[in-house]
Amino acid sequence: MSEEFEANTMDPLVDLPFATIDIKDDCGITDVPQINLKRSKENEQIKSDQIKKKKKKQKDYQPNYFLSIPITKKEITGGIKILQDAITQQDQRLAKAMVGDGSFHITLLVMQLLNEDEVNIGIDALLELKPFIEEILRGKHLTLPFQGIGTFGNQVGFVKLAEGDHINPLLEIAEIAKRTFQEKGIPAGDSRGFKPHLTFMKLSKAPWLRKNGVKKIDPELYEKYISHRFGEEMLYRIDLCSMLKKKQSNGYYHCESSIVVGKKPIGIQDLINEALHQERMGLKSKVKQIKELLLKPETQDKIRRELFEGRLINNSNQANDVDFGMTLT
Where does the A-kinase anchor protein 7-like phosphoesterase domain lie (predicted)? Predict the structure, then answer.
């Protein structure tokens, strides 16, 4: 399950009003009219049915897919790794509760996709999101800064998304994503408002911790990082991921489809790789030109004249002549 759906349990009961029954009128009669008793029983039955339906709906709706904004910036992931190590050094039992390096992400939306047909509908919905998101961004990059630590009920530990002008566009993207998926008939979202965060540990990853007395995340474990700046990530990709399917070899979730909504930040290694790629492409182009030149009949005739000038070639030795066409291909 995605961390947002695990964080807090939701009260499934709602208060429904009973019909008002007067059991004492101006004449002091204390008998309850039969019609009011009947109405009371009907209202109680309605209330019971509504509660059962609500419980069934909540039980049936179990999100198994989510929209993910991957967090891959080395500054951020490295900082979180240091935080995780600092916590496990204080309590080694919590090592099993830590989120793996390749799994860091922001959950944009959770949903339920029950079969391959619904997965394909989800992929279509994701692809339809791209122009809406680009309209929200208006050609600008959306930078997501991370600072500080928070928890959901002391059960889920996460790095906070810092306050700023980036919040509103992200909320708009989450809202349009929810609406797009719901319009296609896909159960999406949950009862709580969207709260972007970057999870780094969950006690639910190791249920045996509760039996060993670890029932909550102690704030003292991360107090040194309570206001720590972890860095910035630029929004450039949104993935449709499975919560249940086997993760990729790098630790990231199984991804059904993706959309690119911005350019990935270019680092030094990216520049080096691009330069090497351009160099290889240039050399490959030159080799191709040389090969084409050597395969021309006039070029081969010229080479033969220069190589065999002044020599008489006997018919018996013609089989030994160099076939440039064969050697070059």
Answer: 63-259
Question: What pLDDT, on a 0 to 100 scale, did the predictor assign at position 302?
Answer: 85
Question: Would you state the pLDDT for residue 249?
Answer: 92
The residues, ordered by sequence, that sit 6+ positions from 112 with a Cβ below 8 Å of its Cβ are 61, 62, 63, 64, 65, 186, 187, 188
CA 204 to each of CA 4, 8, 9, 156, 244: distance values in angstroms, whole numbers, following the listed order? 12, 12, 13, 8, 15
pLDDT value of position 310: 55
Whether the model clears a pTM of 0.85, i.e. scores above it, the answer is no
37: left (phi over 0), alpha (psi -120 to 50) or beta: alpha
- CA 295 centroid distance within chain: 52
Angle between helices 268-294 and 297-308 (to 10 degrees): 70
Helix axes 167-183, 116-137, angle to 10 degrees: 140
Residue 237: beta bridge partners?
260
Sign of CA dihedral 70, 214, 151, 219: negative
For residues 19 and 42, give the distance between their C-alpha atoms in angstroms, rounded to a whole number: 10
Looking at residue 32, its pLDDT comes to 46
Q: In the block, which residue shows the tokens 């013609």?
A: 318
Q: Residue 133 in contact with residue 176, Cβ under 8 Å? A: yes
To 5 degrees, how large is the angle CA 248–CA 250–CA 253?
A: 40
CB 142 within 8 A of CB 233: no
Contacts for 308 with CB less than 8 Å, ≥ 6 apart: none
Q: Supply the pLDDT for residue 69.
A: 96
The half-sphere exposure of 226 on its side-chain side, counting CA atoms within 13 A, is: 6
Residues in the chain, pLDDT under 50:
1-32, 329
